[in-house]
Write the structure tokens for this entry.
Amino acid sequence: MIQIKNNIINIVSLVLINFMTIACVSCSSSDDATTTTDTTDPTDPTSNETVSVDASLFLTTDGSVTITTVPCTLSDGTETDCYQIVSTSTPADHNMGPWCPDSISDTAEAGGIWLENGLVYDVDGAFIENMSTFYNDNTWQMYDASGNIYKTLTEDDCANAANPNVGAEYENYCVECLPSYVADLTQTYLIPITPVAQTSPVSFGSPGPPGQATTGPSVRGLAFNGVRFDAPAPTDAILGAYTLAPFDDAGGHINLAAGYHYHAATGVSTQLAQTDNHAAMIGYAVDGYGLYAQLDANGDEPTDLDECRGHTDETRGYHYHVAAPGTNSFIDCLNGAYAL
């Protein structure tokens, strides 16, 4: 009887111990879940670790880009350090042009691209030949009876045709400004070394003096080759004057004030592949946050982008993804302060 009683006591004790152990584990798991809940907002640049600008990613070997550290004041009044980037706007990683084909018989290799309604079109001879049909306007006739395309040939032509007040003498001209016209031009940009997040988005200004506008920056960011990602090209004004100012296959063209600059990210300039199949890095926005391609290695676009086209992950912190090339845009606003 004593042995049976002891066995019963041992069994009861074991059951109680197991019950208490389960209860404690359950309690511990509940506490851990409470203390480790991830409250990070993928669209909030203040909710995750900030990743500073890596100046070594810029292509400085050929001298087209130089970088120094200088004190600077940001748009929110922050006193900090910035990278001062001086660029000749001459890409070290790809050739510039071509832009305008010579003849309506030319293939796509002889011309650049045009951005229309979110799509990218090759500016080949056939595109020029069919512009009246493409735009449903018989005024378009950008070639002579022999099929030779009218295009700007001198720096004066470039200055006169690539401005908002195009004269009638340039109607039906393909505008092609050449790198030799801006060979001595340099641009200077300031980018905060460590981004400073803002509580509300910062709007871009309209284009003004190089790199700045009256109410905010017009430049969206810089590629690793020092060429700037610019404000949208004024395509309506260009077409309204019955001119065409194509971009090259890299999404860039030249004007005499800005030099060579991009209006689309087409994948030609340097892209840094990511080991986790995330979209490749293509540069930095002017607030210091990273700029990445639109699509990842699987061809997918993030679904959680905020109004500026940014979001956060554990590897890159807050960063932006540029828009599709055909949109004539990159990002829609800034979530960080920019240098004044």
